[in-house]
Amino acid sequence: MFYAPAMRLKDCHNIADFRLLAKQRLPWPVFDYIDGAADDELTKNRNTDSFADCDLVPDVLAGVEHIDTSVTIMGRKSALPLILSPTALQRVFHWQGERAVARAAEKFGLWFGISSLATVSIEEIAALVSTPKMFQLYVHKDKGLNASMIQRCKDAKFDAITLTVDTIVGGKRERCLRSGFASPPTFTPSSFMSYAIKPKWALDYLLREKFALPNLDTHVREGTAEAVSIQKYFSEMLDQSMDWKMVEQIRNDWGGTFCLKGVMSVGDARRAADMGIDAIMISNHGGRQLDGSRSPFDQLPEIVDAVGGRIEIICDGGIRRGTHILKSLAAGADCASGGRLYLYALAAAGQAGVERAIQLLKEEIERDMKLMGVTSVDQLNRERLRWR
């Protein structure tokens, strides 16, 4: 019988390879939490597949020996047109968690974010790195908790707050329902063996730093001291009365650079621009909320046509290749962002994995810009695209 050799970090040459290595190293409930999405997962798959429906049109003989991959987004320069989107529970995937992602982002000069459900505190991340940082705010029913997180971000001098607006209720993540995945992870009869046969992950989780959600645990037990599914957490703990008036109040309370994550319609984009909000992330939460919704890349052109130049636009989700980033910019985005693209790498190999993933994307962006015949990202426009 033939057995394929186990993958190693050096065998990862693209984001799909990191996904395979993460699947090899994680218990299946943890991997399925990263990899899974809502309902039939149509939207999650469409987020990436939509890039294949659009072709690049290169120029040649353009003198591309020297190129500039940098952008300025939300007032801060980024060496690449890429943001590492905020994601929750990172120390569940690898014991280094948000610390690894922060250090990798600083090494490459990138924006990155941490979640309200981060496993490392606002204050520690602020002290750890100087790279531009955003805090992803989930609005809880507990107004004292919301105020606490905003004030902590002020005191820690975070560069932006990104308010997530597409989690009014939790999406139905069926893989998690089957595995019983919860925060913190719990061992169920159906999943016990999956943890037992991944002893390195299990020992790291059990013997290293105790799991916590330090941005929440002063106010709530759920998710940090008391196991709860993410679907249940969103549905029971977050404020379903959130509206545009509340958005305005939160922006005023924060007083700094402010972004909305989860905008998908032209109407909402116009309203955000009319309010003078700094940026929007066109995002469907990685397909983890409303299955059957449109992909960010498909929705990007009409939002750019409506509000481009009035508000910064970030295309969030489905990014797996440097060409996906370049297509987003050519369609009118100011920047692209993604979560799974580095979470697979984090789960596979910690900080070394995240750094290798970013390096591969950096090389793809540089190579593809030269092949496109552009020396700076602002030369990318819709003349360079053809939709099938």
Low-confidence stretches: none
Instruction: Give the CATH superfamily.
Output: Aldolase class I
> If strands are numbered along the chain, what order do they take across the biggest sheet?
4-5-6-7-8-9-10-11
The total count of helices amounts to: 16
CATH class: Alpha Beta
End-to-end CA span: 44 Å
String of helices and strands: HHHEEEEHHEHEHEHHHHHEHEHEHEHE
Q: How would you characterize the overall build of this protein?
A:
Helix 13 crosses helix 14 (296-307). This protein has an eight-stranded parallel β-barrel with strand order 4-5-6-7-8-9-10-11, surrounded by seven helices. A two-stranded antiparallel sheet has the order 1-12. It has a two-stranded antiparallel ribbon with strand order 2-3. The protein has one domain: TIM Barrel, CATH 3.20.20. It has 16 helices and twelve strands. The protein is an alpha/beta fold.
